[in-house]
């Protein structure tokens, strides 16, 4: 596997005769770069690196990965500043170079507020920035994918791919408050889940993390699938079918081309994958024509079906100073905590950002859950705040759907993101129910041991007050998905169960964008599973795509928002 690391603004796909030639964009003066590769992967993040590693296990093939973000030496991502490889730490602001600073369009249903949705921009993608949470969704999440016409994507058939990731463990350090939170949920009647990844997600639990059990460091896609990979120097196939990649650092730089003999796999994430397709001429014809983009494939589902996990931060403060918090790692103890981690790999720095979670069902949150369902088919956390905690509420199975659209015909312009948060009011209602449940949690005997103070949204269960809080403070878990959905074309799908883009025979997508329905979990584990399954599909595929071949479309309809 050869990795092309480029300080570029964006990648772009261009089609000549479809399936005859495919172009993409960054800049490189790397003399090691060949003119032809068997596989080209656009996006060196969680999914892209996983697929690249699996494909390069075969020494007879060559793989090129294109990534816009930096390829830093892992030793540079170290204490005390910048992005730290220490679980639970983000450093003192140096992480900005490792993420795309994306912001939504003003949200109509949130008083026209915009919401930030930063995404990973580095070798390893968002896996180097996430909260390390390792959770699978419920059995019904993935069985739902299969019921939409995606044979082979049920829980049972994905389970072996979930299990291929080995470096997942529980952190060695837990804040004592975690026990109070779990006991409090138990008082409210929620079950405490032992095996959090067995497909029964409803309940309270301690989450495992994507970290090394031995040295207690973050285990991301770069370390798992890039640092351990070897270069392939084999000869290429002599196939007459040609696909290519064109790349440049910006719109003023000279582009360079690289050809591909087998497939292009786009793994640029749920925001940039649909952007790449549309700028390439694959997407809704009306959108493309409005931007003067030549329509190569009229594929209405591209960029639709955007789903996310909207959430609200809610703080609680307490007077019992016998409980240590991360906010107390001030200057006087910072060096001590750092030294403990560096020498022993123990202490607070081994605790991830999130370790205690609950996935209460709607049934457990309100007795009126049936009536409730019939109604619809900002961060305010102070830095270094001592004696405080956070009980974040996020809607997991959302009903709102949004869009990702290019802002122009140039890939160098950031896309327009419109998640349409709370366009279906049930999503915000669910968050309000979660805040009401948090208020009850704070009042349990277990949480009273902390001597909590009334603060933020925890001093009331009043619906109007809490809804106002939600509308003002809503943010996101940064889990965009669904924008190139694996569904039948007539339902607005973009890829088939083999992850091939409809109308093509040599273009696949493998990342969170193919999820037809967002799972009730952090997305990291699901993205790894998608990538592992995609790699097996690609390795077993027969190269039978002819030059310029266009596959016939099944019947379709245009999705609505």
UniProtKB/TrEMBL annotation:
Belongs to the GMC oxidoreductase family. GO terms for molecular function: flavin adenine dinucleotide binding; oxidoreductase activity, acting on CH-OH group of donors. The active site is at residues 479, 522. InterPro entries: FAD/NAD-bd_sf, GMC_OxRdtase, GMC_OxRdtase_N, GMC_OxRtase_C. It comes from the Eukaryota. PANTHER family: DEHYDROGENASE XPTC-RELATED (PTHR11552:SF115), GLUCOSE-METHANOL-CHOLINE GMC OXIDOREDUCTASE (PTHR11552). Residues 1-21 form the signal peptide. Keywords: FAD, Flavoprotein, Signal. GO terms for biological process: secondary metabolite biosynthetic process. Residues 120-143, 269-283 form the Glucose-methanol-choline oxidoreductase N-terminal domain. It comes from Gibberella intermedia. This is Glucose-methanol-choline oxidoreductase N-terminal domain-containing protein.
């Amino acid at each position: 596997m050869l990795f092309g690391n480029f300080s570029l603004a964006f990648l772009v796909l261009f089609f000549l005769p479809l399936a005859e030639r495919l172009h993409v964009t960054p800049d490189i003066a790397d003399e090691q770069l060949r003119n032809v590769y068997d596989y080209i992967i656009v996006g060196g993040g969680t999914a892209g690196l996983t697929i690249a590693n699996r494909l390069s296990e075969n020494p007879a093939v060559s793989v090129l990965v294109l990534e816009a973000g930096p390829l830093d030496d892992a030793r540079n991502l170290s204490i005390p500043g910048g992005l730290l490889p220490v679980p639970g730490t983000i450093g003192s602001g140096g992480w900005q170079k490792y993420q795309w600073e994306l912001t939504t369009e003003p949200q109509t249903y949130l008083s026209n507020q915009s919401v930030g949705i930063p995404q990973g921009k580095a070798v390893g993608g968002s896996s180097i920035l996430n909260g390390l949470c390792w959770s699978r969704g419920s059995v019904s999440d993935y069985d739902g994918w299969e019921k939409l016409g995606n044979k082979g994507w049920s829980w049972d058939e994905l389970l072996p791919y979930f299990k291929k990731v080995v470096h997942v463990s529980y952190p060695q350090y837990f804040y004592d408050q975690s026990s109070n939170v779990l006991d409090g949920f138990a008082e409210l009647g929620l079950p405490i889940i032992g095996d959090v990844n067995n497909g029964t997600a409803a309940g309270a639990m301690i989450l495992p993390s994507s970290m090394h059990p031995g040295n207690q460091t973050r285990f991301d896609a770069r370390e798992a699938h890039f640092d351990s990979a070897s270069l392939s120097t084999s000869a290429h196939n002599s196939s007459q079918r040609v696909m290519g990649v064109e790349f440049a650092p910006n719109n003023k730089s000279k582009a360079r081309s690289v050809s591909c003999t087998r497939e292009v796999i786009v793994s640029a994430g749920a925001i940039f994958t649909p952007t790449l397709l549309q700028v390439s001429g694959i997407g809704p014809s009306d959108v493309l024509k409005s931007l003067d983009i030549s329509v190569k494939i009229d594929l209405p589902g591209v960029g639709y079906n955007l789903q996310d996990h909207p959430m609200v931060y809610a703080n609680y403060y307490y007077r019992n100073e016998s409980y240590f918090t991360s906010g107390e790692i001030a200057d006087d103890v910072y060096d001590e905590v750092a030294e403990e981690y560096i020498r022993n790999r123990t202490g607070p720095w081994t605790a991830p950002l999130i370790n205690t979670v609950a996935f209460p069902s709607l049934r457990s949150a309100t007795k009126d859950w049936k009536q409730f369902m019939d109604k619809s088919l900002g961060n305010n956390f102070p830095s270094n705040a001592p004696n405080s905690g956070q009980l974040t509420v996020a809607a997991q199975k959302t009903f709102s759907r949004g869009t990702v659209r290019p802002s122009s015909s140039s890939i160098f312009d950031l896309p327009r993101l419109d998640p349409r948060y709370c366009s279906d009011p049930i999503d915000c209602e669910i968050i309000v129910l979660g805040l009401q449940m948090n208020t009850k949690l704070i009042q349990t005997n277990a949480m009273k041991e902390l001597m909590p103070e009334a603060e933020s949204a925890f001093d009331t269960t009043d619906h109007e007050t809490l809804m106002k809080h939600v509308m003002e403070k809503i943010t996101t878990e940064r889990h965009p998905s669904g924008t190139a959905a694996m569904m039948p074309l007539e339902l607005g799908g973009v890829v088939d169960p083999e992850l091939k883009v409809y109308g093509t025979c040599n273009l696949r997508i493998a990342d969170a964008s193919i999820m037809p329905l967002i799972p009730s979990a952090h997305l990291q584990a699901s993205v790894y599973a998608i990538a592992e399954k995609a790699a097996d599909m690609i390795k077993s595929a027969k190269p039978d795509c002819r030059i310029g071949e266009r596959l016939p479309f099944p019947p379709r309809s245009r999705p609505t928002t």
